[in-house]
Design a protein that fits this description.
The complex is a heterodimer of chains A (about 160) and B (about 240). Chain A is mainly beta and about 160 residues long. Chain A has one helix and ten strands. Chain A has two domains: about 60 residues, no CATH class; about 80 residues, OB fold (Dihydrolipoamide Acetyltransferase, E2P) (Beta Barrel). Chain B is about 25% helix and about 30% strand. The chains are: A mainly beta (about 160), B alpha+beta (about 240). The interface between A and B is large, with 47 and 56 residues. Chain B: GO terms for molecular function: biotin--[biotin carboxyl-carrier protein] ligase activity.
Chain lengths: ~160, ~240
């Protein structure tokens, strides 16, 4: 259990209204006690039993993101002849951009040779434009996501033949 | 949390910090600031105007490991905006956030955010730049459509006080707010929430009008239109101010 998880657990217990929670596993034991009269410095929010990774404010019409899979696609399981290929995956949730700007050519095309450290795409959310660099030398075999489509964490973006 | 260095003058705090990061000279949580940013810029190289000696520009650098927990860029941007809303609040200034990251007082801009980042070796390196209209007079300049802390408070504000308040609020949002709370609080601070708004779409000068229902965890604007609820991400269109 790392610090972040412990922090989250403390927050959870504080909000739940419980006065004491003990948790014991093989590796550790933790007891969290809350004191009445101590105000938790966070506004009250409903306790979510199972936090989903993505919270929508309103319902998403299915037409809004036809390409977005409900679950991130499994990166593995390529066909036998594709087993030599590697994938470049999205390090975060966001929108996939193949071009640096709408009037510019794509960073890479199918067949492009790429070097480690070369920018292959941008994942953007709310004006935070993240340049994604390749971690390998290789050749782009397939672009797995359409331009400007939403992507999930760990979703494969490119199929690459290592060179 | 921040290591702070001040400069008498810089062309752009973001550009300078970016240079330090790229040449491996910037430690995590380095913050640089100046009261004289001579060539500030916003998104797409738009000029960010600041009055020499009077307005505050600062940028800070953070890197985050992408291996341990999934990074949600939209929630990071929202957290920065919330820290700013709370910072202004400590000076008695009630601001709203115009999606995605402009700070408005009424319908006038009081602060702007410019975020730049890259992912390298499973780490995201983020440079957050913030420009605050602090001690310049803005009220008479209709063209800039901006306002300053001085215009509102009628007294001068010290840059150290602003930075200190920002640091405290940023730390509190980052450490105490979980994803749900960031999203909820950001939505509460949203400019034009539940009001009729116009979006200027990037495709062929198209406009969309609807009721602004909020922003989702992906950072998309949710708009209730005659044909249902649509989600717009930043690359598709922008919200128009009054």
């Amino acid at each position: 259990m790392d610090l972040k998880e412990i922090q989250n657990l403390i927050k959870f217990v504080a909000r739940s209204g419980a006065s004491e929670v003990s948790l014991e596993t093989e590796d550790f034991k933790i007891t969290i006690k809350t004191h009445s009269g101590v105000t938790y410095p966070v506004e009250s929010v409903p306790v979510v039993a199972h936090a989903a990774p993505v919270h929508q404010v309103v319902e998403v019409p299915s037409a809004a993101s036809p390409a977005a899979p409900a679950e991130p696609a499994k990166p593995a399981a390529p066909a036998a002849d594709e087993s030599k290929y590697l994938t470049i995956k999205s390090p975060m949730i966001g929108t996939f951009y193949r071009r640096p700007a709408p009037d510019k050519p794509p960073f890479v095309e199918v067949g492009s040779e790429i070097k480690k450290g070369q920018v292959v795409c941008i994942i953007e959310a709310m004006k935070l434009f993240n340049e994604i660099e390749s971690e390998i030398d290789g050749r782009i075999v397939k672009v797995l996501v359409d331009d400007q489509k939403p992507v999930e964490y760990d979703q494969p973006l490119f199929l690459v033949e290592p060179l | 949390m921040f290591s702070i260095i001040s400069f008498p003058e810089l062309p752009s705090t973001n550009d300078y910090l970016k240079h330090l990061v790229e040449t491996h000279k910037a430690p995590d949580n380095l913050l640089i600031f100046t009261l004289h940013q001579s060539n500030g810029r916003g998104q797409f190289q738009r000029k960010w105007f600041s009055e020499p000696g009077l307005d505050l520009a600062f940028s800070f650098y953070q890197r985050k490991n992408l291996d341990s927990t999934p990074f949600q860029p939209a929630l990071f941007v929202m957290s920065v905006c919330l820290a700013l809303v709370k910072t202004f609040d400590t000076f008695g200034i009630k601001c709203k956030v115009k999606w995605p990251n402009d700070l408005l007082y009424g319908s006038k801009k009081i602060a702007g955010v410019l975020l730049e980042s890259f992912v390298q070796d499973k780490k995201i390196h983020i440079i957050t730049g913030i420009g605050i209209n602090m001690n310049s007079h803005r009220n008479n300049d209709a063209e800039l459509n901006s306002i300053s802390m001085l215009d509102i408070r009628k007294v001068l504000t010290g840059p150290e006080d602003v930075l200190k308040a920002f640091e405290q609020n940023y730390e509190s949002v980052m450490n105490l707010f979980d994803d749900d709370l960031v999203l909820e609080t950001y939505n509460k601070a949203l400019y034009k929430l539940n009001e009729k708004v116009s979006l200027k779409m990037n495709s062929e000068g198209e406009w969309i009008t609807g009721i602004l229902k909020g922003v989702d965890a992906r950072g998309r604007l949710c708009l209730k239109t005659g044909s249902g609820i649509i989600h717009v991400h930043h690359g598709q269109g922008s919200l128009v101010r009054d």
